[in-house]
Design a protein that fits this description.
mainly alpha; 88% helix
Amino acid sequence: MLVMAGIIAEATQHGLSPAQVLGAIPLLIPSTLPTQFNATTLFATCVVYGRLAHDNEILAIKAAASNISASSGRVLFLGLVMNLTTPGCTTTSFRRRIT
């Protein structure tokens, strides 16, 4: 949102009309998505594990004799997948923009 606000402010300073700025926004969104994947995944993970800790669900998992590492393995896998796919998305979006 802050990036979009900065782009809109810069575009209006250069004399673009609001219709031109709104027409340019869909062209700018794909270049910002690769940087947002990791941030949103990290935010979601922090919210979920914070909620689990607040509701004492982690203690319930341990009390049920379940391994907490097995539950955390899925999160590590998701983080690894997101980190490996982000450079591919960035490279693809730059190639499309150049050609």
